[in-house]
Specification:
Layout: H1 10-27, E1 29-31, H2 34-43, E2 46-48, E3 52-54, H3 57-66, E4 71-74, E5 80-84, E6 90-93, E7 99-101, E8 108-109, H4 113-125, H5 146-157, E9 162-164, H6 169-183, H7 186-191, E10 195-201, E11 206-207, H8 209-221, E12 225-229, H9 241-262, E13 268-271, E14 278-280, E15 285-287, H10 294-303, E16 307-310, H11 321-337, E17 341-345, E18 347-348, E19 353-355, H12 356-373, H13 380-383, H14 385-391, H15 401-406, H16 421-426, H17 432-446, H18 454-466
Parallel strand pairs: 1-11, 6-17, 7-19, 9-10, 10-12, 12-13, 13-16, 16-17
Antiparallel strand pairs: 1-3, 2-3, 4-5, 7-8, 14-15, 18-19
Helix pairs in contact: 1-9, 2-9, 3-9, 4-5, 5-6, 5-18, 6-18, 8-9, 11-12, 12-17
């Protein structure tokens, strides 16, 4: 597929890369973990004021040579299903929304563990959703260990790869242990990784202890991490796209250097969007749908690294026309810009609310985009010259063997409506939202994900319970 949105010339990329290097050498970054400071100091970085680390360009260039240019995620059966890199895009939801639109009642409410399970069932079923994230933060369990319940629910409910989020390092260790249980041990998980960890640092120039611990832990395990310094343009980074992204990527490059110093060749996936977004000066809300986001995608593509981006989300407060428009536009742009992992499908309200209907809409749009971008076969069979010659000017192609053989190759919608007006009325005249609700209900009633063995489920539950206050490490 041709890259329709290069956005940055080679000269512009070089200038932004040099700006990030200058920030690292002249300004430095605060690392709130002694191990990280010591690792970089031993590698040749300059340390002052305890934890202010100035990283020389040579360390960055060395890390860029050793970090893998592709990462492959596997399904629960060990099949390589997500070769992240090159020109393919993979799609999935986001994590940890504080609210959910209840698809049964339509009300906006606090999520529960059942919502994580039902969301994973939907993701497991939907053909264009390639991986699973937790979608919501359940409020019906102890919030300090809700990440364990999320991981248990996802591992138990889908065979697709999982991108997980944890609040602290012990949660990350527990999540990895759960995946090792499912995959048959630490070596099996390293060989066929079915998980990646999404890690947020405070900002491009301030990296908190928990983020650094998780990054180094995953590097030591040789497991993929998505490392995201979460600066917000106009607040913790410049308002201009170039300045904001240059600062953010200074933080991204620090993460790459640390991972490679810890374990050369450790897989890291970099952000293809401004991680913290832009602060809208009119509403004081961070935007998930700003058109300027793809400058980061372009920068990441120049580095040739596996990357992820945001699309399929909306600032809308409910599943409405704005939600559909922003989801479709962002999915189209990020797909054609060449983003590898596209996440946050289903997000409403700038990531505060999740909607299963929005997730289904995203799946439908992705199907359209795959048909749009796949190209065309041009050969004797598809040109059908013999069929045209046989039928002639008055020919009826409808009932020919050629039509019966090939008509299914075109894209047909599952959620969008193509009937005539009378045909639509005869089926109840239902809106897109009503059709989405019916589809959600039918999937949850009929789709049966492949279950885990009983003993495996019991072991996962033991790890969850061990994390409760008064048990185990906690």
């Amino acid at each position: 597929m041709t890259d329709l949105f290069p956005r940055l010339s080679k000269k512009q990329f070089r200038r932004m890369h040099e700006a990030s290097l200058e920030i690292l050498e002249r300004v430095g970054v605060r690392l709130y973990l002694a191990e990280a400071v010591e690792l970089l100091k031993k590698a040749g970085a300059r340390v002052s004021d305890g934890n202010l680390v100035c990283v020389p360009a040579r360390l960055v260039e060395k890390a860029l040579l050793s970090v893998p240019k592709g990462v492959t995620l596997h399904d629960r059966r060990g099949n390589p299903v997500m070769p992240v890199g090159g020109r393919r895009s993979f799609y999935g939801p986001g994590s940890d929304c504080l609210n959910i639109i209840d698809h049964r009642s339509g009300e906006r409410r606090k999520p529960v563990v059942r919502d994580v399970v039902e969301g994973a069932v939907l993701c497991d079923y939907l053909p264009h959703i390639d991986y699973v994230m937790s979608m919501v933060l359940p409020a019906d369990v102890d919030g300090t260990i809700a990440d364990r319940y999320q991981m248990e629910a996802m591992l138990s409910t889908t065979t697709k790869p999982i991108i997980f989020v944890t609040y602290e390092t012990d949660g990350c260790r527990d999540a990895v242990e759960m995946a090792e249980v499912v995959m048959g041990g630490a070596e099996a998980l390293r060989r066929t990784p079915t998980i990646a960890c999404y890690i947020n640092a405070v900002s491009g120039l301030r990296h908190n202890k928990e983020a650094l611990e998780k990054l180094l832990f995953l590097a030591s395990k040789n497991l993929p991490s998505l490392y995201i310094p979460s600066s917000t343009a106009a607040i913790t980074s410049p308002v201009t796209p170039a300045g904001s992204v240059a600062l953010d990527f200074a933080g991204v490059l620090v993460g790459l250097v640390l991972s490679q110093v810890k374990r050369e060749g450790a897989p890291v996936i970099v952000p293809g969007m401004p991680p913290g977004g832009t602060f809208d000066m009119r509403t004081l809300v961070t935007s998930y749908c700003e058109p300027e986001r793809t400058i980061t995608t372009a920068l990441s593509r120049h580095y040739g690294l596996p990357m992820f981006a945001i699309a399929g989300a909306s600032e809308a407060k409910t599943f409405d026309q704005q939600a559909a428009a922003e989801a479709a536009l962002s999915l189209a742009v990020e797909t054609m810009a060449g983003s590898h992992i596209i996440h946050d499908l289903g997000y409403l309200e700038s990531g505060l609310t999740f909607s299963f209907a929005q997730l289904l809409l995203g799946n439908e749009v992705i199907g359209w985009l795959k048909a749009f971008t796949k190209g065309y076969e041009v050969n004797d069979e598809t040109l059908a010259l013999d069929v045209i010659a046989e039928l002639g000017p008055e020919g009826d192609f409808l009932n020919t063997p050629h039509t019966l053989k090939h008509y299914r190759e075109r894209w047909y919608p599952n959620l969008f409506e193509r009937a005539t007006y009378q045909g639509w009325l005869s089926k109840g005249g239902k809106s897109l939202a009503e059709r989405a609700k019916e589809k959600i209900d039918s999937v949850l009633a009929e789709h049966k994900p492949e279950p885990l063995p009983v003993k495996t489920r019991e072991r996962l539950r033991e790890i969850v319970l061990r994390a409760k206050p008064g048990y185990g490490r906690a």
